[in-house]
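User: What would this chain look like folded?
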Amino acid sequence: MAKRVSKRKQEKVLSPTEMRRKLLIERKHRAESRAVFSVLIPVLVLLAGFLGYGAYAELWRTPREPIARVNDEAITTGVFQKRIGWERVQLINSLENIRGLALSTDPSFITNLANQQRSGLASNAVDQLIDEAMIRQEAESRGITVSDREVRNYIISNTLASVLLAPPPTPASEEPDTPTDEAAAGDEAAAGDEAAAGDEAAAGDEVAAGDEAAAGDEAAAGDEAAAGDEAAAGDEAAAGDEAAAGDEAAAEDEAAAGDEAAADDEAAAGDEAAADDEAASTKPTDPDEVTDEDFDDAVKNYLEAQFTTANIDRAEYFDIVRQAVYREKLNTALGDEIETTAPQANLDYLLFRDKATADAATAALSDGGSWDNVTKTFGPRDEPSPDESAAADDSAAADDSAAADDSAAADDSAAADDTAATDDTTATDDTTAADDTTTADDSATADDSATADDSATADDSATADDSAAADDSAAAEAATPAPTALPTPEPEPYAFELGEATWYTRDAALQRLGLNDANADKVFELEAGATSEAIQGSRGFYVIRVIEKDEARELEAADLEAKRSAAVDTWLTDQRLSADIQRFAYEDKIPAEPAWFISSFEQITGSSLSLPTLDVPTIVTSQPPVDEGAAAGSTDGG
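Assistant: Here's the prediction, encoded as structure tokens.
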């Protein structure tokens, strides 16, 4: 109670001025607080709004912004960015696969290819997404659907086949001939013959040895010591034969052991191969037979690393594969609608390298010349085939070889005759020398004189040879003509190809003859029996004759299959012109290249960079360094 009274007393002690000051201070503090909050709260609201808008734009609005629109269906930025990530992974994998081949041919090939695909990756992704949208819309309008099971089986057949499916059986082929019992019998017979021959030789040796022993006994009739030595030698020889026989037996045992070991190794290798074949045979051949557990494990072990790298999940990857299945099923549906007949023309032609000769051939036809006469006049010239030329060359070479062999034989015979004559002369000289009464000194003097004469003759011969070589060299230099410019080759005055009569559709004429659309139309507008003017194709200038036409001829199996395989591509070509396709700017929506892509790209292209180019102007204008020693030498010499 005392404390309360004292407090009241203290409050009463404050003067009115002090109380007013206190109230003003408190009012000022409250005003300042209200001012701070009035500024801070709007700032916080603006900041929250800015962050919220950024999150909204980044996470919701931008991914939903269209980069293209196909028949009122939007292709969003989010789908585009996910596809860019996946296409980057596929680009690196593709470059890695062709890297070895490219480096073995042209080191700059992989660099140029990689740079082109890298720069066009975004535009190609947009084109691919537009095509997929058109395919999916057409498929759905036809009632074509793609189930999750079909997506799963497509992945198994095209991506995980080596992991989950057994390889298809290879067609049976003829095995190489193996050694037969007849060959083995032949080897045994040959071995028997060799053994028999060895026995006969041994028998002959024994008979000869017996004859020699008998002769020795007759020659040394009373020499018992010599006979004893021969007997001891015979014992030693017999012991040596027995030791050799033992060595041969041991060698045969070792060889037999080696054969058994080799047989064991082959058996073990066969068992391992059989085990591998058995393991492969346990894999199913049909994707429907693969269990879901095996499929999930394969996706986890072989594909999820690529999902993480591309920044996509499993569902997004399955959606990419779903578009491929839509394309495949629509292609089948469109292929079944292709008619099996088409307008066709039976054509043959002359193909020229230049237009002037082709015009000459058409002029001859216009003047009333028949096709057969024109083809004889302007058709390809008959030339020996490479095989016939090679045969002729081989025959000439054989004749030359035979002549060379005959000449060599004649030389050998002559040499033999000379040797015989030399031997006879030598014998005669020896006889003469035995009867000769000339003294040794006279002979030496005569030899010295002959040697001097031979030396002089050799010097004269060497001088003559040098003079002749100099004359030959001068004549060769005089006979060498000065190089002259080669004349420009003129076009051949005849065709280099005569086409056989073949049925063509318009598409086949475009592809096989290399015609453009306008020239193909000119050919198919001709009546049967008419010939075209000179028409340019990819290989030269054609003069084409229309033998006959059929407006509904059955397509060849290969042509029909080609049309069916390209059905969806042909359909897309038309749809790109007729569909309502809108493209929007997407360059600012391309995600930045991640570090893994940049480093992988540099590793692939860095090993095949071309050599730096030379700075030719700098090399030409720069002065070479002055050699001081050479300069001093030239000065002294001056």
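The chain has 23 helices and seven strands. If you want, I can go into more detail on any region.
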